[in-house]
Amino acid sequence: MKIITSLLAGASLALVASMSSAASTGNTLATVDPEADRLALQAFFQKRFPQVELDDYANGIYALDAASRAQWEEMEEFPPYEFDIEAGEEMFNTPFANGKSYADCFENGGMGIRQNFPYWSDEQDRVVTLELAINQCREANGEKKLKAKKGAIAQISAYMASTSAGNIIDVKIPNDKAKAAYLDGKAQFYSRRGQLNMSCANCHVQGVNIPIRADRTSATLGHVTHFPVFRSKWGELGTLHRRFGGCQNNVRGTPLKAQGKEYSNLEFFMTYMSNGLEVNGPGSRK
Amino acid sequence: MRKNIRIKHALLGLILAGASTVAVADADLEAKGKALYLNKKKGNCIACHMINDPDAKLAGLQGPPIVAMQARFPDKKQLRAQIWDATVKNPKTIMPPFGRHWILSEDEIDAVVAYIYKF
């Protein structure tokens, strides 16, 4: 009995010890160091799963769990998001009523630019995500905003991501205001929320690849690379902020507004953590 | 004398009846605890804790398995306190504070304790 007890105590101590090394680089504007945070998070996962190549984290839980990877690879043979990319492409290329189109709003005609989103905008005094930019483009051209979580916006975003496949995520933090947005995202990630009192980090750093019933939680490293995502549970495509809302519901919290400043800051933090990984969206997940 | 024996028998009967009422109450409490353990919308303990009960299929492994409970928690109150708010002992635990956040009622926590204390 004593052996069991001490084994259990030992295991939980080890988890706590390794946990505290994942986010040890400051939580004030003066002390936070995004690049050190990123390297610490990478080092944490590489120590925990030494056999997994860094690039493979773009494949989410399938980088870590061989059994579910086989099923996923089968699913990807006939990707469930294929028609969404086509629909997105068609919308992307259809001119607005004023004769202009999405291509006029983006650098390089909107092709191959997914890796630069989200970015900090001094002009707008906020983080701009790709989906926000798509809607801003519409409004600037006299069109109505699209709903932020699914449908057309996800399809257009999916098409734009698909033109960026293989590009390296490269989110920049140009000044202290951007750093403050990053810090807010980091704080959200590590703060406990909801009646269940859980943080993003609880499941996606601390509890990664450990079963919750039959499911395993994915590593946050690489979380953003494959969005928008076709999720079997949804039976359709959805944006990253839709997924954030789902997670927050799961912990019995109150989802925040999709494309609002809070979730955009969270996306900014998470995407910075995945700097250096390849864009591989849209993706499919269970 | 005969009267005395009758009284003794009656008393014995009362005691036995009392004991079986307690046993039934215990079994009821344990059954209630088991239902809470398995219910996704209530305790959902099964999401993270393995338990050697044939009805607890595909239990998760995020938390320690429910084994040797009496050895690990010689004082039942410690176990109850752990369910009520596990962050007291370990601030970094993932386990939700079932009592502090009113996820389960006080009676429901008692039921869960009764159920898992057998394992």
Describe the fold and architecture:
- The complex is a heterodimer of chains A (286) and B (119).
- Chain A folds into two domains: 27-77 and 174-285, Cytochrome c-like domain (Cytochrome Bc1 Complex, Chain D, domain 2), CATH 1.10.760; 82-162, Cytochrome Bc1 Complex, Chain D, domain 2 (Orthogonal Bundle), CATH 1.10.760.
- The radius of gyration of chain A is 19 Å and the shape is globular.
- Chain A has a three-stranded mixed beta sheet with strand order 6-5-7. A two-stranded antiparallel sheet of chain A has the order 1-2.
- In chain A, a hairpin with a 4-residue loop joins β1 and β2 (126-128).
- Chain A is mostly helical.
- Chain A contains ten helices and seven strands.
- The N and C termini of chain A lie far apart (39 Å).
- Chain B has a single domain, classed as Cytochrome c-like domain (Cytochrome Bc1 Complex, Chain D, domain 2), CATH 1.10.760.
- In chain B, α1 crosses α4 (106-116).
- Helix content of chain B is 51%, strand content 0%.
- Chain B is built from four helices and no strands.
- Chain B is mainly alpha-helical and 119 residues long.
- The interface between A and B is medium-sized, with 24 and 23 residues.
